[in-house]
């Protein structure tokens, strides 16, 4: 991933130097296990701790071997005594090192992403609590529907991010396995005890069964979980973009001092950060199909997945980390305009209260069909000629007056009924009690 969309810590995690260091960790932990089993001389593991790997030397050897693990072993081996170096990679195949290290790096990357989600959850939660009872126009099909609460919008994001967190944690568990079982996965030249020792050192579990490789449904689940997380961030960004439009102007992403929105139009304040998140989420979604294609390999392994994963796993985790930080900054600095929200609710002259009028007429005794036709007729007329409001048309209609008094009609044009269950919803989801959502189906105390 290019530096523009990378944060330093995650970028360093996937650097060649760190990847080779993790490969070397796997090799050294395996030597420790062999030593404990009495298969190699005592003291080798301690002396091999002095080994190091220069990425430039790996590149040098790879130009000759056209094999990265053999190049790595040569680069590491030249930094220690050859008599000790010969025990590196003892009984192992290349993928024992590569897949185990890749799993370890991916787990570490996902831990960083969970931390990013947790930070964003707290920001979204604070937003929901602050604007719990702030009325905003609810929209369906992009059109005014009925009033709702801006806090409920944020609470919905909070819940969805909680599900994203659960998916990432599950994917972390699925990918968090080590594989040191030899050329076809049957431990012919390396005992399970070596695998168990390496796994424990890296904070992983031994894979219960593998071929020469870990099965790629594990990696596909990681990419899918990251893509869904990206979808949530895109959803939030898209909502902010819509609400920031000139005609709406209910919220606005932060606009820094000295920032400029357009090279041609000095008045512009564009939602560029949210647009960036929407664009990057497309990249995340694009990684899903290659990850799924990697699941089917020939027999006990082929290498068709390798080139794909060198791109999509670092890129997807780097992007997710960057996008979470960006969204957190956007929401922490979000400009919210309750007065504009209130004005937009009133912009149609009360049309958005049509369902309350309909239901009140039905309660008063009209048939639903007759009430619907009456209300719709006045609503369409008011929309076509807004000089005479929907409310006014209703209060002047003799048919309406047969069923409802003017005071009853007037009382229907209030936002309060649309907020009456907000406390119930907030209590049900636990947002006032907890910093992150409980798993659905359980209830946080």
Q: Mind sketching the topology for me?
A:
Layout (H helix, E strand, L loop, with lengths): L7 H6 L2 H21 L7 H5 L6 H11 L2 H10 L4 H4 L8 H37 L4 E6 L2 E7 H26 L1 E2 L13 H11 L2 E2 L10 H28 L6 E2 L19 H15 L1 H6 L10 H29 L2 E2 L1 H9 L7 H11 L3 H17 L5 H7 L1 H6 L2 H5 L11 H8 L16
Parallel strand pairs: 3-4
Antiparallel strand pairs: 1-2, 5-6
Helix pairs in contact: 2-7, 2-9, 4-5, 7-8, 7-13, 8-10, 10-11, 10-13, 11-13, 15-16
Structure notes:
The protein is mainly alpha-helical and 445 residues long. The protein has three domains: 1-90, Fumarase/aspartase (N-terminal domain) (Fumarase C, Chain B, domain 1, Orthogonal Bundle), CATH 1.10.275; 95-185 and 203-345, Fumarase/aspartase (Central domain) (Fumarase C, Chain A, domain 2, Up-down Bundle); 351-412, Ribonucleotide Reductase Protein R1, domain 1 (Orthogonal Bundle), CATH 1.10.40.30. 61% of the residues lie in helices and 5% in strands. The protein has helices spanning 8-13, 16-36, 44-48, 55-65, 68-77, 82-85, 94-130, 150-175, 192-202, 217-244, 272-286, 288-293, 304-332, 338-346, 354-364, 368-384, 390-396, 398-403, 406-410, 422-429; strands spanning 135-140, 143-149, 177-178, 205-206, 251-252, 335-336. The strands form three sheets. It has a two-stranded antiparallel sheet with strand order 1-2. A two-stranded parallel ribbon has the order 3-4. It has a two-stranded antiparallel sheet with strand order 5-6. α7 (94-130) packs parallel to α13 and α10 (217-244) packs parallel to α13 (304-332). The protein is elongated. The two termini are 42 Å apart.
